[in-house]
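[Automated response] Your request has been received and processed.

Submitted sequence:
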Amino acid sequence: MFLKNKILLIPVIFSLISLNACDNATTKKDDEKKVENKDKKEIPIEDRMVSMEKAIQQPDGVTQMKLSGQNLTDFPADFRKLKDLKSLFLGNNPRLDFRKVCEIIKDLPNLEELELTGNNIKELPESISNLKKLKALWLDANPKLNFEQAFEILSKLPTLNELFLKDNDLKQISEKIALLPALGTLYLDRNPLVELPESLATMPKLHTLTLMEIPKLNWAKSFMQFTKYQKLEVLMLGNNSLNTLPPQVGELKNLKLLWIEKNSFTALPEALGKLQQLEELYAFSNPIDPKNQETAKMMLRNTKIYFQSASETPQ
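Generated structure:
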């Protein structure tokens, strides 16, 4: 009986020996990994922000990549490892295949800002619509881009709040821009626009509009349109050779900031006095009569008015 029990115990003993050996092997591997990680020198975050190779080596904690103007020709698939990335600046890299780029970055779950300025993009890749957390997109200086197609794709981005369309040689803007559900800020500076799309008035969240250096725009018609923008708070009209503001400016009841610098105003209209919500008025670099300046200050007692820029202020 004793011998029988002893024989039965042999497999159990071998099992225990095997388990112990596995544990020792695992512990050894863990120790080796710890030594390896300890020996691995951490790359400074500022270096990883400007180098794809270094960022991919140590992707944790990289929230911003500044790759603009690096003349990139390839975009590695391992860029997907940057799961913490929130801001990606890829402007002025026209040799990149942006269809491939967007197929890779669509897997970045936290991306909020994407800059694609000056990349000669003709068609916006469909895969960009997977960036459901995207808040700001720069498409400046891509004059060959099919914007009608682009707006259809961007309409699938529920959080896109800022859109940059400067320097695109746009003579008109597709009415499909109104498809963008969350658009709040629109930059249209330095485009040869003659008129604005009527559909802008149907965009419930549009609060900031910049129209700098667009002298060909039909301003009388545009101000009529502005009165229909219920949420408009910021209006930038600098450097447009304007010499008068139409009376409709007084109907922009929610306006908080008006930027009209570098125009040809000699006087500001009384209609501005109706803008009780106006907090800041930038009117420097205009030949405005000093008496009219004082009148404007009386009309807008609660508004900070700047008739001189920092460079124009006597030292």
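Summary generated for your ticket: The mean pLDDT is 90. The two ends are 109 Å apart (CA to CA).
If you did not submit this request, please reply to this message.
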